[in-house]
Specification:
4 helices, mainly alpha, 0% strand, 88 residues
Length: 88
């Protein structure tokens, strides 16, 4: 049982690092795309306001929620393996 707990903590730490890297990467890509869109069009507002509003819309979109699956899928599979090992 201690081995499972140790593996759980190790996997959680690794997945946390992967989640931070992936979420920051996609957020920076979205921010750059918004800046490019602002430069390409003639919008009468400040660039920072435009990018902030766009990033708010990005945070409410489906992509950050799907990135959170980086945590859910491995822990679901690990729970399924524990269940199958204990009761099969």
């Amino acid at each position: 049982m201690i081995g499972w707990i140790r593996n759980f903590v190790l996997i959680f730490a690794v997945l946390s690092v992967v989640y931070v890297i992936v979420s920051r990467h996609y957020a920076s890509k979205q921010r750059q795309a918004l800046k490019d869109e602002f430069k390409a069009s003639n919008i009468d507002e400040d660039e920072d306001v435009f990018v902030a509003r766009g990033m708010g819309a990005y945070r409410r979109s489906l992509k950050p929620k799907l990135i959170f699956c980086i945590f859910l899928v491995p822990f679901f599979l690990m729970g399924l393996l524990i269940y199958l090992a204990a009761y099969a």
